Amino acid sequence: MSSALLVIDMQNGFIHPEGSLPSLGMGMPNIDSVIAENAEAIAAARTAGVPVIYTRSVFRPGMVDLPMRMEGFLPPNFELLERGSWDAEIHTALTPQEGEAVIDKNRYDAFLNTPLEQLLRTLGATTVLVLGTVTSICVESTVRSGYMRDFDMYVASDGVAGAPGQHEASLDIMGAAFATVLPWREAIAAITAPVTLTDPSVTPAS
């Protein structure tokens, strides 16, 4: 099988202590550990020849394309993840290498109104391992969408971050119906394992 690693929204605005959401008290627990696990998983994927694709949530000035309901948990006139800003950039610990795709989106689902599906099809990828944030929002939305498009979805349980309670519930839901949920090392091993073809002309010994 051909595979790709998809890193969802590991941006300053979500995961840096000075980012917009952490500055509002909306940081995520154990985020330093999750950043470190992402860095190791990305390095392992590159070594194994697995393409790495990044996504970024970005919005226009004035937040005119902010998703419905998102305004409800932000202060009035608060701007975050503005296109071209430091807040919207990928965290420096996870900087994309030259040639790696970075897909911008303004909705939780990374497939919606983006070239992600076309890119995966062009790469010949049928299996997608997902890391990133937020587990129950952008990660789960993207995993469900990928599943509906007949990609074999994997989620790195130690490479995603989200709000306590919601994070665990989301992993359970994805694992029950939409994806294989494993620590990233096991997931990388699974998606890079050679496929063994059975010769139909060979009859097993009795």
Describe the structure.
This protein has a single domain (3-192), classed as 3-Layer(aba) Sandwich (Rossmann fold). It is α/β, with parallel strands linked by helices and 206 residues long. The mean pLDDT is 91. The protein is built from 7 helices and 6 strands, in the order E-H-H-H-E-E-H-E-H-E-H-E-H. Strands 3-2-1-4-5-6 form a 6-stranded parallel beta sheet, with helices on both faces. It has helices at 12-15, 20-23, 31-48, 116-123, 135-148, 166-177, 184-192, and strands at 3-8, 52-57, 101-105, 127-133, 152-161, 180-182. Helix 5 packs parallel to helix 6. 33% of the residues lie in helices and 18% in strands.
Q: What is this entry, summarized?
A:
The chain is an alpha/beta fold and 206 residues long.
Question: Key features?
Answer:
206 residues, alpha/beta, Rossmann fold, six-stranded parallel beta sheet, 7 helices, 6 strands, 33% helix
Q: What's the layout of helices and strands?
A:
Elements: E1 3-8, H1 12-15, H2 20-23, H3 31-48, E2 52-57, E3 101-105, H4 116-123, E4 127-133, H5 135-148, E5 152-161, H6 166-177, E6 180-182, H7 184-192
Parallel strand pairs: 1-2, 1-4, 2-3, 4-5, 5-6
Helix pairs in contact: 3-7, 5-6
